[in-house]
């Protein structure tokens, strides 16, 4: 493994491409996967909690954060899962627990679809396996990015205050998105992340058939079928609502379920200590977390 040290992580080269990876602790590995439009910055407060007992790792996926932004990079969840598997090989991780937020949860399940023997535990937070939930309601700012030329102009004019405004409805307490935290979430936009957003807006990241297949993967490999599964949810998420989390936990036999009050979509940002402790307990003793009947 070739890496370049960074104050809060390291750059790791895999197949000629540079990944930014935050890592702490020793022991059995647990890998934290971010969604859209975040990066490993989302997990910065959860990492040290898990790192007390385990090797906790949070990468910036290719195209995100500080990692490389290939002009013709991965366009689908399945491709990102394959790239993540290559990173894990480079980090000499044969088996690990996976924790996924938002689209990161889909990437985790896509990885299980191909390599179920590599995953010891699975935690999914605030995601959806229903295509309509990803589309949201009304006119999304991302819809402008789908229009040639207009999309390029719109993304070039994006500013930090716009990101703050976009994130506010998905935080139970918007005041926690102060200037310092906002800079952390905005930073990728200064490292060519705008190009990634354009690509994601114009090419399907996944489809309804993918989501149905991944639900089947959870039913086949998750819960009592093999891989212990925890559904952890920010209860106030207006888009990926609590009803879906409850339905998912009920339909996957043996799935553990825990909602977090006073949290919305960005659960790792809003309740990092509670989430970190819950994950640590689940990895050690899954039976300690309730099963929703």
Describe the structure.
There is one protein chain. By secondary structure, this protein is α/β, with parallel strands linked by helices. It contains 13 helices and nine strands. It has helices at residues 47-50, 77-90, 103-114, 131-135, 142-145, 150-156, 160-167, 179-186, 193-202, 208-221, 242-251, 267-270, 272-284, and strands spanning 3-6, 9-14, 17-24, 29-33, 55-60, 96-101, 119-125, 229-234, 256-260. A nine-stranded mixed β-sheet has the order 1-2-3-5-4-6-7-8-9, with helices on both faces. The protein is globular.
Describe the protein's topology:
Blueprint: E1 3-6, E2 9-14, E3 17-24, E4 29-33, H1 47-50, E5 55-60, H2 77-90, E6 96-101, H3 103-114, E7 119-125, H4 131-135, H5 142-145, H6 150-156, H7 160-167, H8 179-186, H9 193-202, H10 208-221, E8 229-234, H11 242-251, E9 256-260, H12 267-270, H13 272-284
Parallel strand pairs: 4-5, 4-6, 6-7, 7-8, 8-9
Antiparallel strand pairs: 1-2, 2-3, 3-5
Count of beta strands? 9
CATH topology: Rossmann fold
What is the chain-wise order of helices and strands? EEEEHEHEHEHHHHHHHEHEHH
Identify the CATH architecture: 3-Layer(aba) Sandwich
Structural class: alpha/beta
Termini Cα gap: 45 Å
Strand content: 15-25%
Number of domains: 1
């Amino acid at each position: 493994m070739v890496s370049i040290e960074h104050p809060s992580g390291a750059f790791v080269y895999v197949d000629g491409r540079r990944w930014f990876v935050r890592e702490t602790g020793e022991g059995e590995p647990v890998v934290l996967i971010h969604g859209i439009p975040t990066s490993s910055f989302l997990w910065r407060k959860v990492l040290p909690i898990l790192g007390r007992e385990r090797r906790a790792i949070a990468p910036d996926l290719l195209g995100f954060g500080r990692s490389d932004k290939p002009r013709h990079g991965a366009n689908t969840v399945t491709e990102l899962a394959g790239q993540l598997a290559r990173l894990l090989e480079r980090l000499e991780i044969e088996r690990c627990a996976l924790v996924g937020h938002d689209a990161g949860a889909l990437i985790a399940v896509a990885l299980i679809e191909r390599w179920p023997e590599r995953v010891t535990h699975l935690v999914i937070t605030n995601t959806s396996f229903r295509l309509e939930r990803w589309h949201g309601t009304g006119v999304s700012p991302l819809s402008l990015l789908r229009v040639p030329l207009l999309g390029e102009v719109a993304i070039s004019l994006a500013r930090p205050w716009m990101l703050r405004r976009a994130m506010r409805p998905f935080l139970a307490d918007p005041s926690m998105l102060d200037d310092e935290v906002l800079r952390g979430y905005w930073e990728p936009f200064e490292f060519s992340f705008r190009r990634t957003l354009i690509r994601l807006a114009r090419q399907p990241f996944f489809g309804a058939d993918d989501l149905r297949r991944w639900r089947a993967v959870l039913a086949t490999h998750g819960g009592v079928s093999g891989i212990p599964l925890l559904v952890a949810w920010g209860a106030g998420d207006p888009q990926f609502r609590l009803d879906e989390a409850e339905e998912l936990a009920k339909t996957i036999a043996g799935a553990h379920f825990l909602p977090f009050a006073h949290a919305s979509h960005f659960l790792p940002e809003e309740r990092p200590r509670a989430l970190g402790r819950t994950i640590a307990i689940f990895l050690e003793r899954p039976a300690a977390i309730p099963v929703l009947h």
